[in-house]
What does this fold into?
Amino acid sequence: MSTVPLSERYSVPENDAVHVWSAFFPEFEPLLSSYERVLSPAEKLKASRFLKRADRDRYIVAHGILRELLGKYLLREPSGLAFETGKFGKPKLVLDSGLPLISFNLAHSGDVILYAVANEGQVGIDVEAVRTDLNVLELAQAHFSSDEIEELRAVSPTESVSAFFRYWTLKEAYLKARGDGLGFPLKDFSMTVNSNKLPSIRWAADDPLVAERWSVFGLSPAPGYAGAVICEGKVAKLVSRHWTT
Ligand SMILES: CC(C)(COP(=O)(O)OP(=O)(O)OC[C@H]1O[C@@H](n2cnc3c(N)ncnc32)[C@H](O)[C@@H]1OP(=O)(O)O)[C@@H](O)C(=O)NCCC(=O)NCCS
It folds into this structure.
């Protein structure tokens, strides 16, 4: 039985759409008490184990918002939602019969938290704060496919950092959509990043139909951040929304 008013319900994304929610908070501290109260005992325990306070606070807020957000799609109390995790840790909702099928994924970096909500198809989202202190060509050499490395080398030095983070977030979003996480070799699939076109998956060693199977979007969630969302199936519409407390 739900006590979430119907007026606060969010419509479940249509088959060809993904909803991307962004939340930015310069400080998590003032939000802690309202979000902590909706977490499960297991989530509270996980939060208590972070060594850094900033990581703990962001975890509490990110998972509190996740519960409130999904509660509004499903007309359920945030604290009543249940999750289970796949083999490599991808969380998914445990839904009782009669509830609409929705899938989600979340990512956080710095003070930005992103959520993707889709229909029943798998979805993966990533966000990274763009760092200028990295040797991106060296990192690409270690982790990217040979065609990605070649493309990154062709980019001017001033553009190579942002190009690297576009590739990185696309690659991580793909692994998160699959649910594999970074245990899957990053060299075994390849992305295209072309400023004139939408990004895409060029090939994956274990999936000859990869380009048809997934829809790919690059995101610019906030100044200094790169992001990407990848959804299963033909998804043509990305609806961006901002979460406010
Ligand atoms: C998933 C993963 C790529 C996330 O990387 P990250 O940049 O640190 O974190 P992000 O902010 O992008 O995403 C974190 C969120 O993704 C979700 N997530 C966790 N595992 C996931 C997976 N396998 N697939 C998709 N999403 C996952 C969770 O909601 C997580 O939130 P939380 O950390 O607050 O619980 C990374 O943690 C990973 O590779 N995990 C798999 C580890 C693994 O293979 N373990 C099995 C060993 S046998």
In short: The longest strand covers residues 17-24. The pocket of coenzyme A is lined by residues 59, 62, 88-91, 105-108, 124, 126, 172, 175-176, 179, 181-183 (CB under 6 Å).
